[in-house]
Amino acid sequence: MKIQFKPMLWPSIFSILIFAILVSFGTWQVKRLFWKESLIQDYLKQSQSNPITDPAELEKSSINEFKSVVIFGHFMHNYEIYITGKTYEGNAGFHVVTPFKMENNKIVLINRGWVSESYKNPNKRKFSLIKGLVKLKGIIRYPQKKGYFVPENDGKNGFWFTIVPNQIFDFINVISNPIINDYYIDALRFGEKLTLPIGVEGKPKFRNQHLSYAITWYGLALSLLFVYFSYHASSGRLIFKKIKRNG
């Protein structure tokens, strides 16, 4: 078989660039796949291990993310803020984030969970404003990082999009006690009956569609090659000839 191939200049340059971009996107998704699988395994390992119960342990800055904790303290409901753009089973709402004074008098932020728009006002859910000593089970979470298309937090106008403890503490101006900025805590829900705010289940719910994304990008790259060579074949620039043998 003899192949005669005369590539066209600009279609070839264009195709090489687009092919490289598509392959790089696919490779990036493969890397994200391994990262996400590692994250899920780390979540399971830390959240299902023995919880931290000693308040002194919570003062360390080297606590692993997703580590389970059991702490006692009091909610500071007057300082709660609301993270916008959160959904629960398709319903729009907010996450309620409340400072929590622990037994050692240090204050940590607690993401108590989801409430609907109609229950954002604490006066409409006084049943959720728990008073007195509280036993709280939760999971350590590191400060959230703002995504590319996520707006900046704007506490003055009541718009919060990410949980960043130092920004929230600066805004609410809690200065009477030492605060923890290295992490916050996701509160776990109790029992089967849902109560507001609805806390996390303690099971990983990370979206992991990176494999399908990688297949899509690689598939587009292969489709581009097919179109490229088909175009050259139809224009007579790619010819396959059989070699005739004498005798």
Commentary on this structure:
The chain is an alpha+beta fold and 247 residues long. It folds into 2 domains: 2-39 and 209-241, no CATH class; 51-187, no CATH class. It has 3 helices and 8 strands. The protein has helices at 9-47, 165-172, 210-234; strands at residues 2-5, 68-75, 81-88, 91-102, 107-116, 134-141, 184-187, 238-241. The strands form 2 sheets. A 5-stranded mixed β-barrel has the order 2-4-5-7-6. A two-stranded antiparallel ribbon has the order 1-8. α1 (9-47) runs antiparallel to α3. It starts with a strand and ends in a 6-residue tail after the last strand. 19% of the residues are buried.
3D shape: elongated
The SSE order reads EHEEEEEHEHE
Domain count: the total is: 2
Rg measurement, Å: 27 Å
Structural class: alpha+beta
For the largest beta sheet, what order do the strands appear in spatially?
2-4-5-7-6
Let me know the largest β-sheet: 5 strands, mixed, barrel
pLDDT below 50 for ≥5 consecutive residues: which ranges? none
Question: Which percent range describes the beta-strand content?
Answer: 15-25%
Instruction: Tell me the number of strands.
Output: 8
**Mean model confidence by pLDDT:** 89
Instruction: Count helical runs.
Output: 3
The helix content is 25-40%
Calculate the terminal CA-CA distance, rounded to whole Å: 17 Å
List the helices and strands and how they pair.
Layout lengths: L1 E4 L3 H39 L20 E8 L5 E8 L2 E12 L4 E10 L17 E8 L23 H8 L11 E4 L22 H25 L3 E4 L6
Parallel strand pairs: 5-7
Antiparallel strand pairs: 1-8, 2-4, 2-6, 3-4, 4-5, 6-7
